[in-house]
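Thread title: Can someone regenerate the structure for this chain?

I was given the following input by a collaborator and told the matching structure tokens would be attached. They weren't. Posting the sequence so someone can regenerate them.
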Amino acid sequence: MFTTYRAAEMHFDLSPENADKQVWSFVEQEIIWPWFYVEIVRGIGDDEYCSMLMIPHARDLQRLLKKPSEVLRVESISLVSPPHINGRQEWSLEPLLELSSICYEDTEELGFMYVVAGGETYTAARTGRMEKYREIDKIFSAQRSS
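Best answer:
Regenerated them for you:
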């Protein structure tokens, strides 16, 4: 989840087609957990334009992917992962190849498995890194969406 602050709200265009939009100069991520940077294309034909969505949870991404739309398509998805997930010293942005929901065999806790470009596989659960799991559902596959 991303937190917004009234002081960061920006006021631009008040035209009717933009009346339901809010623009923020920054957002805060309070929970140190992976999130998704999603390139989308809106529009049809010559009226297409690209933008980026910042999606805080795998279930939110799943809802976007399952919602059919003639005017919006997902071009690419990147995983933004914190050090305790990716095993590095810093946050990392990597193209996402697969996302699955999983169940850890030892605890029956649910989590997620992320496969990124380069072949690295990360798992995420509330209780930390666990190795034995079974796949429940394939949420995203770059091969299927190409």
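The chain has a mean pLDDT of 87.
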